[in-house]
Amino acid sequence: MHISLPLILIKLSFLFLIASLATAKVKLPAIFGDHMVLQREQFNPVWGQADPGEQITVRINGQRATTYAGVDGYWKLKLKPMPAGGPYALEVSGSSTLQYNDVMIGEVWLCSGQSNMQWSLNQSDGGDLEALSAKTSQLRMISVPHIGSQQAQDDFRGQWEYSDSGVASSFSAVGYHFGRRLQDVLGVTVGLIDNSWGGSSAEAWVPRDVLETHPRYKDHLDEWDEKAATYTDAMHAEITARHEAWKANGRVGKAPPWPNDYRFGQHRPANLYNGVLHPIIGYGMRGVIWYQGESNASRAENYAHLFPLMISTWRDHWKQGDFSFYWSQLADFNNEQELPQQDSWWASLRSSQTKTLDLPNTGQAVIIDIGEGRDIHPRNKRMVADRLARHALAKDYGFDIACESPRFAEAQMRGSEVVIRFNHVSAGGLYAFDVPEVIGFALAGADGQFHWAQAKIEGIDRVVVSHPDLLSPVAVRYAWAENPVVNLYDRNGLPVTPFHADL
Fold first, then answer.
1. Binning pLDDT at 50, 70 and 90, where does residue 19 land?
2. 477: domain range?
3. What is the DSSP-derived secondary structure letter of residue 436?
4. Which of 226, 251, 269 is the last residue of a domain?
5. DSSP H helices in 395-445
6. pLDDT attached to residue 23
7. What is the mean pLDDT of the chain?
């Protein structure tokens, strides 16, 4: 029987394809690699791709775990809890073998949010000095590239690296200072994952199907669907060219629109959940530090629902229980006002952030005293990180250290005065910084208009507020402005949390 040469080549090609599929290499996403940090004292998921039905074995530090790849080639297993230590080799074997070296068991934290989390160490106060002492193998970092997508991504380009002057300088300043503080105190290796994206909206960090279950987000979803549908490659090329021409011309005149592609940018709902969060979901960690909210200020009231929804969704999908989630409240920004602001998106967003503390295992760093009126990006990132680190050290690691800013508890009328009690006040009591007078309280009468009020500390945890012309006030506020002029602290140096309360 005569068989033509082309037919033979086709059959050989087919057999070669089958053989190559049968010996496909075992693959893991980039979150696993040399120098990685695995979370101590809890189960650590490990996952990847292999041939369907292939047996996969993972070994580390005398431990062995086995599973089988599913029909789609996906496999996942969990390593049993291990104490801090290392370095170890993590071996993954199937039809091929991978080995990751210099693996440490320590503490892992995710650093997420928008530009104030993305803001690098070399852009921050003292960043050049800090970088000189940043060299340590006990602090390790990995960054997730900016990929916005409506389809869930399973991997990214990145690698774990030691902290050194170069790596630390370009890493999140808040993340670096937070991790360095923990490493200094705990004495174990700390791993930091940065997936922050400047300008990102909270809706972009939530899966679309979750947003769609709540009617309140329909208009926002429809708006972004229309923007994405009408935006073209040609439009993007034109906007990009205009912006590049403006830069080449010395940035003279008003800046043209930033070339941010609506389809793949950091504002479109679900884009960042799919692009920069999904590839790492499930990786063992202690918790999240978060700095975001500026891009949601115009939807401040909705944020009181959206922010806890986002946190709860992440926790549900991570399948690691209610892991710790600590955030920075919005800093002071914009011009100071001579008269009390009657309404403020910024203040309302802060209020929504505070309400999210109703969720378990959460914490808020109040930073209304370290912002810069002229710049939405405060340079003092170390203080932001330290106030976040207080929550972790107290709540996750059991240190006896103050972490909560005093918060409004109740208000009672005493004649024409309003007596306000705060919780989370230390034994040292409240303290008026710089001058004896307490600054930043306002009262409103029946007309709803707010007026600056007199205030004085009474006892350890109370402030008495009054106004000579308001004998029956109906509401009280503190630090209710974009850039509030205030001076009330706890003796631990933590500023009192802004609030509004009806009487």
1. very low
2. 407-502
3. S
4. 269
5. none
6. 55
7. 94
Q: Tell me the three-class secondary structure of 438-470, residue by residue.
A: CCCEEEECCCCCEEECEEEEECCCEEEEECCCC
* 414-466 residue pLDDT tens: 999 999 999 999 999 999 999 999 999 999 999 999 999 999 999 999 999 99
Length of the chain measured in residues:
503
What angle (nearest 5°) sits at the alpha carbon of residue 247, between those of residues 242 and 252? Answer: 95
pLDDT tens digits, 132-174 = 999 999 999 999 999 999 999 999 999 999 999 999 999 999 9
In order of 70, 238, 355, the CA distances from 263 in angstroms are: 33, 16, 32
DSSP calls for 45-107 = EEEEE-STT-EEEEEETTEEEEEE--TTSEEEEEEPP--SEEEEEEEEESSSEEEEEEEEEEE
User: If DSSP codes are grouped into helix, strand and coil, which group holds residue 232?
Assistant: coil
Residue 493 maps to which CATH number? 2.60.40
Helix, strand, coil percentages in the chain from 3-state DSSP, rounded to 5 = 30, 25, 40
* Residue 142 lies inside a defined structural domain of this protein: no
Whole-angstrom Cα distance, residue 241 to residue 406? 50
- Distance between CA atoms of residues 219 and 207, nearest Å: 16
CB 501 within 8 A of CB 409: no
Q: Which candidate, 287, 387, 288, 266, places its Cα nearest to that of 331? A: 387
* Residues 280-314: b if buried by 16+ CB within 10 A, e if exposed: bbbbbbbbbbbbbbbbbbebbebbbebbbbbbebb
Angle at which helices 381-391 and 173-186 cross, to 10°: 50
SS3 412: strand
Look at residues 269, 287, 306 and tell me which one is the last residue of a structural domain.
Answer: 269
In a domain, 234, yes or no: yes
The verdict on residue 180 lying in a domain is no
Long-range contacts of 411-418 (CB under 8 A, 24+ apart): 411/476, 411/501, 411/503, 413/503, 414/464, 416/466, 416/470, 416/471, 416/472, 416/473, 417/464, 417/465, 417/466, 418/443, 418/464, 418/465, 418/466, 418/473, 418/476, 418/503
Alpha helices in 319-433 (DSSP H): 345-355, 381-391
pLDDT band at residue 322 using 50, 70 and 90 as cut-offs: very high
Sign of CA dihedral 194, 200, 202, 204: negative
| Total domains, the chain | 2
Q: Which amino acid is at 126?
A: G
Q: Are 184 and 247 in contact (CB under 8 A)?
A: no
Does residue 107 contact residue 39 with C-beta atoms inside 8 Å? yes
- Tally of CB atoms within 10 A around 63: 13
Please compute the mean of the pLDDT values over residues 364-389 and round it to a whole number.
96
As to burial, measured by CB atoms within 10 angstroms (0-12 exposed, 13-18 middle, 19+ buried), residue 56 is: buried
Distance of alpha carbon 99 from alpha carbon 88, whole angstroms:
10
Q: Domain for residue 281, yes or no?
A: no
